[in-house]
Amino acid sequence: AGLVQEFATDLVLLAVIPVPGIDPTVRVWDAGHSMDIPYTLDALMVTLMVLVRIRYVLYWLVILDPLTDSTSSVYARSSCVDLNLRFVLATRCMKNLRFLLLLWLIAISVSAYCMLVAERPFAFVDTQLHPEDHESSMESAVRMDRFHNCLWLVIITMTTVGYGDVYPSTDIGRLIAVVSCFEAVVLIALVIEITNTRLSLDDSSQRLVDFTYRVREYKETRKAATCLIERLYIVSPVYRKLHPTARSRTKLGDDAY
């Protein structure tokens, strides 16, 4: 019933853990600075562990969803609908704004942590090579080996603001920023869709709005027609015969027309 595949997937995900006593240094060539950036294996494994375990967070959200209760499961089987992770997440993203905001929070937090892991070794190496460039307080305020700076960078990147006060220095950090941009495109599209869904009117409300505008247009048309008939009557010979004392007004009306 698909349990073997789930079991194998869980084994692979749970196997991604730092191994005690095995902590070699992995050097990655950075073309922007023409130097090797040293990364420790435990930091890379912890980052990978965080990424793969997002699956369990999503599964936890799916388990707590009302779509996966016993009644919904029975109805889904009778309707030949597969209540899998993709179906529940797509439904929640289209219907629940709080769930979508939670996904925003998860994406921002994970991207900021990955940015910190990517930028921290370069900041350490650059401090050792150029200590005079890191003595000012302004320079330390924009250092990317601080989590709050990485968090700020990811937020302004995913919200398409991009102040430019902080930016990634390594190639891996720039790659993470690009991935964050693509994440933001998807999440912003979902926010726009759910906003349109929330603001759209149902059939009864739309009929009420249409009826109200039709009544208003009818009243305005009737008022305009009344004014037109009144003006035509004032300049007509019938009005002159019935109101002989209003010749000056009639003459004025003739001159106007």
TrEMBL record:
What SUPFAM superfamilies does the annotation carry?
A: Voltage-gated potassium channels
Q: In this protein, which residues make up the domain named Potassium channel?
A: 139-197
Q: Which organism is it from?
A: Hemiselmis andersenii
Q: Does the keyword 4Fe-4S apply?
A: no
Per its record, how is this protein called by name?
Answer: Potassium channel domain-containing protein
Membrane-spanning intervals of the chain? 43-63, 99-118, 172-192
GO terms for molecular function, please?
small conductance calcium-activated potassium channel activity
List the GO terms this entry assigns under cellular component, sorted alphabetically.
membrane
UniProt keywords, alphabetically: Membrane, Transmembrane, Transmembrane helix
Q: Name one Pfam family in it.
A: Ion_trans_2
